[in-house]
Write a structure and sequence with these properties.
By secondary structure, the chain is an alpha/beta fold. It has a single domain, classed as Dihydrofolate Reductase, subunit A (3-Layer(aba) Sandwich), CATH 3.40.430. It has six helices and nine strands; from the N terminus they run E-H-E-H-H-E-E-H-E-H-E-H-E-E-E. The chain has a nine-stranded mixed β-sheet with strand order 5-4-3-2-6-1-7-9-8, sandwiched between helices. The two termini are 29 Å apart. Bound molecules: 1,4-dihydronicotinamide adenine dinucleotide and the ligand Nc1nc(O)c(N)c(N[C@@H]2O[C@H](COP(=O)(O)O)[C@@H](O)[C@H]2O)n1. 1,4-dihydronicotinamide adenine dinucleotide binds next to strand 1, strand 2, helix 2, strand 6 and helix 6. One of its GO terms (biological process) is riboflavin biosynthetic process. This is 2,5-diamino-6-(ribosylamino)-4(3H)-pyrimidinone 5'-phosphate reductase.
């Protein structure tokens, strides 16, 4: 499976505020680019932290992009995936509407009643892992459902986990011209953080977009802190 991460960060590396309230970092050109990225994916994935904070829809908005997908016999908008170990996704979340298939990937820690509630709300529930969603198992389960290209939109905990599992092939970061600050505000990669060995990136492109900068990387492997 090809896995790529896209996110928008402030100039100080934050994805949102310390209150975890969504910040509009991207401008119109970048949001159009994100729409094109979504249109090129079989599924768009977020963590339940993003669902609880932003209630995203995660669909392709541009009608010509949707038409191009249906012309090649793909659904108009990619599948949506939420990593949700205990099944906290609200049953009225926008990702559970009928605009696209939605996979709620839970762990064995999710109660039977939460799994049923998500299924009743329209999700296909997938179980991967014991206490927390196990990413290798989740990715395998998605692959068996025909997902070959997976876009990760966030947030910081989930992006870190995908890097930690060595599952990311490409990263694009839009760096907006704003400072958000806050030691507890989410960053591009939160989690426990890397020590001693870090994912290595190869910078493939840099360009101005809106009033910010788009950085595009491929992931080349892992290396030690001092080379
Ligand atoms: N600027 C941007 O491009 C974006 C910003 N955001 C922001 O990020 C914030 C949400 O990010 P986070 O709080 O970090 O939450 P998150 O969206 O990364 O979700 C984390 C949660 O996912 C669940 N999870 C299940 N399995 C997991 C695994 N294997 N690894 C990691 N998490 C797993 C856990 O419940 C965990 O608490 C919001 O404030 C949102 O606005 C989110 C997406 C994009
Ligand atoms: N690319 C990007 N730029 C920003 O400035 C953002 N705040 C985000 N946030 C992400 O976009 C999701 C919203 O998706 P919908 O428009 O509802 O489909 C939100 O949940 C974050 O994942 N992204």
């Amino acid at each position: 499976m090809h896995v790529f991460v896209n996110a928008a960060a402030s100039a100080d590396g934050k994805l949102s505020t310390r209150r975890r309230e969504q910040v509009r970092i991207s401008g119109p050109e970048d949001f159009a680019r994100v729409d094109r990225l979504r249109a090129g994916a079989d599924a768009v994935l977020v963590g339940v932290g993003t669902v609880l904070a932003d209630d995203p829809h995660l669909t392709v908005d541009d009608s010509s992009l949707r038409a191009a997908r249906t012309d090649r016999d793909d659904p108009a908008t990619p599948a949506r995936v939420v990593l949700d170990s205990t099944g906290r996704t609200p049953t009225d979340a926008r990702i559970l509407d009928n605009a696209a298939t939605t996979y709620a990937v839970v762990s064995s820690a999710a109660t039977r009643s939460r799994r049923q509630a998500l299924a009743d709300a329209g999700a296909e529930v997938v179980v991967a892992g014991d206490d927390r969603v196990a990413l290798d198992d989740a990715v395998s389960a998605l692959a068996t459902r025909g997902i070959e290209t997976l876009m990760i939109e966030g947030g910081g905990e989930v992006i870190y986990s995908f890097f930690a599992a060595g599952l990311v092939d490409e990263l694009s970061v839009y760096v907006g011209s704003v400072i958000v600050g806050g030691r507890d505000a989410p960053t591009l990669a939160d989690g426990d953080g890397f020590v001693g060995s870090f994912p290595d990136l190869s910078l493939e492109d840099v360009r101005a977009v809106d009033d910010g900068v788009l950085l595009e990387y491929t992931v080349t492997g892992r290396s030690g802190a001092n080379g």
